[in-house]
Amino acid sequence: MDTNLKGLTSQEVSRRVAEGKINITSNLKTKSIGRIFRDNICTLFNAINVVLLAALAFVGSYKNMLFIGIMIANTTIGIVQEIRSKKSVDKLTILSEKKVTVVRDGRECEISRDEIVQDDLVVLSRGSQIPADCIVCEGECKVNESLLTGESDLIEKKVGDELLSGSFISLGKCYAKANKVGAESYAAKINDEAKYIKKVNSEILRSFNFIIKICTFILFPVGIAFFIRQFGINDGDLQATVVSTVAALLGMIPKGMILLTSSVLAVSIIRLTRQKVLVQEMYCIETLARVDVLCLDKTGTLTTDEMNVTDVITMCNKEEIGTALASIAKYSDDKNATLLAIEKYAKGQKHIGCKKFYPFSSETKWSGGDFDNGKSYVMGAAEFIFKDKNKNKYKEVFDTIESINDTVRIIVLASSEKSLGNGLPDDIIPLAVVLIKDKLRENVNNTINYFKEQGVALKVISGDSVKTVQNIAKDTGITGAENAIDMTTVKTQEELEKAAENCSVFGRVTPQQKKQLVIALKKNGHSVAMTGDGVNDVLALKEADCSIAMAAGSDAARNVSQLVLVNNDFASMPGVVAEGRRTINNLERSSALYIVKTIYTIILSVFFIFFHMPYPFEPIHFSLVGALTVGLPSFVLALQPNKNRIKGNFTYNIIARAVPAAFCTVLNIIGMAVITKFTTLASDEYSTICVYMTALCAYMLILRLSYPFNALRIAMLTVSAVGIVLGCVFFAGFFSLVWLSVDGLILFGLMSAFTIVLFNLLYNYAEKLIEKNKNKYK
User: Fold this and answer.
1) pTM value?
2) Catalytic member of 120, 297, 334, 569
């Protein structure tokens, strides 16, 4: 570093902070605690419950207000789970945040990008995303501005040139002064695009919104008509009418379903943070579990950002080769993966002094230097180092290269007695052919095999040469790796769409083409996930149904991705998919419990508008039955292990499972209403039998949903059954139930036997329909 580049002093930094000249940006943040409370408390369902509570309080039916305790408990659970999730995500976000190196008080130090102030001296090297608009003060670099321009060409920057925030240092190292920070920087203008997390197209959300719209549409007109009808039946008894109406309306609201989903997804986020996976959008867990195509970036996903020298084919003295490689590695400022591999290979070899070093450039495609032993050494691609030379003179080099398997990167080492100052000399002599290979990530083969077993098609998309990408794909065991294409040969949209469907390996892909490939796959009906770590992946990541970034990658990639692998380990992916499957499959089972009550309550409410009989239920009945056959079982079932593949339509599946119990309940209640109207059965026995039959139908459903049984599910079923019996026997008066007469017991026994048989027949048929529906989605 130039001795004149001392950076700001602590006092100058403090003054700029006080003046507001600081690089505060609008990063993605989790909800505040206050917003979590507001979002969980101020809901439509809670508002309806409060109105119903007020109605019961007005008529003095206090014991029927017990449902408010369940509402408070549900809301509290939702708040606690979301706060726990927030804390886990915030903690992981801090761990994954990348620091920026600046020079202050004459020394380098690491700070958060938000702490950069105007005129700070920022140290930028390969892999750095430029945090604020800067002017280069010392050094040179090559910048990838694809995030800004969509072009992947590297742009050379020298002293006095401007570096735009959001671009990416690909080569070189420089010291740059931050001249525009915060809202004035270029990044602020593209912030909404570059740091946008796309909401997931969630089938669960669509299903629940559909159900909620229907319930809301039905709730008010049916409620008004029901109140008027019951008021006439009850001879103007306001208390009885309000109690009946509240009971009917409470049953129509699947209020626990949304809470259950939020809580279960929050638990999933907490579980994934323990696996070092940062979830930036809750419903992406579901989307990833549904994907059938996973697009992989080569570097950073299948391979590490590290390379190894696998062999050196010598054409002269081995000692000189070691010295030459060690010397080039010593004096090269461009510490890219290739140079680091050379440096690691030549470790322990002596190096010699350098008079002048010539860094790698995109024009020359080589790097080298003039050294103190009177020789110059150069390293690069053979076709560029020996370009326009007599190929017979270098026949041994090119024959050697021809005989090498293409799974490696090939560079040549050469020497000359002349300086490299005027370009490559005529007397250049080949010294060695160096073979370098990408290092595969640990356990990557196991991860690839997992996705193959799960029926997920894998496609490798990279800017590298098609041969390099193809051989990496073969090494990892990706099916269809032989179907590879060089995207520079693709000229039309039709060709691109055909390649997207038929090929598994794509080389020389531009950022725009990556995006177009994802669009083409989605157009063909696929659910697409995309992994990436570079700025060139941003466009495709934003377009994918589910986007996954490596924490070690560019900030731009991390900001647009819905999942961030904090430990940069692709092997974490099966755990994420498994968590998503557990969540969705269990939510599908549990949601059926809530839909049952909604279906039968709506049908019965309409029935009792036209049938001259009192409504058999009170709110306290649903407090008993709902807590033990819906609330407790739904949470237990939703948190159980479940690795089954997700198939079929979510809405269809939950409704199909709910209909048998809802139909049996409706049939029982209507049957009891007819029997009571034309017999002398007491109205309180009629109401009690209706509660018993409703509980039986609900219990039959949780029994079937709990299969296959395990210790926790058996315990849940036992608690549910015992709780219902205790409530009906020992707290009958409190729950507005009565002891049944002999005739009532006989009637209940006959109806129970009929219901058990009918329910199981209907449920078996429903399962066949669900399986048939799922087969359509294979």
Assistant:
1) 0.67
2) 297
